[in-house]
Amino acid sequence: MKSEILKNICYTELVYERINKKLNTKFSKNEIEKLMFDVIQETNENCFEKIGKNYYITNTEHNIKITVNSNTFRIITVDKVK
């Protein structure tokens, strides 16, 4: 599952703005893509959960949860974990 997500991960224009807004950052597209790739890569696969049509990847070290569409592998949003 993890390798498939990393191989096929993609983004929409709007998601870059959404990620910056949710994480309260001002990263460039490249910085966001690198951050998402690195976080997914270093997250243990037992922190990957598939619910309905989405994968939820929770990384407590970075305090974020990434939501990825399981069909398109497009990042939908990122939330801070409390």
Structural class: alpha+beta
| Mean of all residue-level pLDDT scores | 96
Total E-strand runs: 4
Low-confidence stretches: none
Number of helices: 3
Work out the radius of gyration. Answer: 11 Å
Whole-number tally of structural domains? 1
End-to-end separation in angstroms reads 25 Å
Strand order of the largest sheet: 1-2-3-4
State the order of secondary-structure elements, H for helix, E for strand: HHHEEEE
- Binned, the helix content reads 25-40%
Q: Which band does the percent of strand residues land in?
A: 25-35%
Shape estimate: globular
Largest sheet: 4 strands, antiparallel
Summarize the structure in words.
By secondary structure, the chain is α+β, with helices and mostly antiparallel strands. It has one domain (2-80). It is built from three helices and four strands. The chain has helices spanning 2-8, 13-23, 29-42; strands at 48-51, 54-59, 64-69, 75-80. A four-stranded antiparallel sheet has the order 1-2-3-4. It is globular and about 30 Å long. The protein starts with a helix and ends with a strand. The model has no long low-confidence stretch (mean pLDDT 96).
Give keywords.
alpha+beta, 3 helices, four-stranded antiparallel sheet, 82 residues
What does this entry show, briefly?
The chain is 39% helix and 27% strand. By secondary structure, it is α+β, with helices and mostly antiparallel strands. The model has no long low-confidence stretch (mean pLDDT 96).
